[in-house]
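Support request, priority: normal
Reporter: lab tech (M.K.)
Component: structure prediction queue

Hi team, I submitted a job for Guanylate cyclase domain-containing protein from Plutella xylostella yesterday, and the status page still shows it as pending. I've pasted the exact input below so you can check whether something in the sequence is tripping the parser. The sequence length should be 112 residues. Please let me know if I need to resubmit or if it's stuck on your end.
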Amino acid sequence: MFSFTVRGRGLVNIDHIDSSFIIRHPCALHFWWMLKSFTKSIELSTQRLEAEKQKSDLLLSRMLPLPVLRRLRAQKTVPAESFDAVTIFFSDIVGFTTISANSTPMEIILDY
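Reply from support: The job had stalled in the queue. We restarted it manually and it finished. Here are the results:
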C-alpha cells in the first residue's frame, strides 16, 4: 500500500483516491496509473528480495554455528577461536568425478 501527500488533503492512500479527483484533473489519471504501477513493481521486488533473503538465511544456518550466525546478523564481528587440538581429515574418492557426472546427488549419498 502506497500513500502520498496532496496539498491541503494530507496523506492519501492511492487505493482510495476519489474517482472525481481523477476525472477533474486530466493528468491525475496518468499519474495515478504510473504510481499504481510503480507501487506494484516495488511490492513485487520486495517479495522477491524477501524470498532470496530467506534462501540465504537457510543456507547460512546450515553452514554456520548459530552463535556465529547471530553475531553476523547483528553486524558484529566474529572473533577467531583457537583450539588446543584439532583433526583435519582430507579424503579422495578415486573416480569421483566420473561417478558424480553419471549420478544424482542422492544416488551418490546413498550408494557411496
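The chain has a mean pLDDT of 78. The longest helix spans residues 26-63. Let us know if anything else looks off. Ticket resolved.
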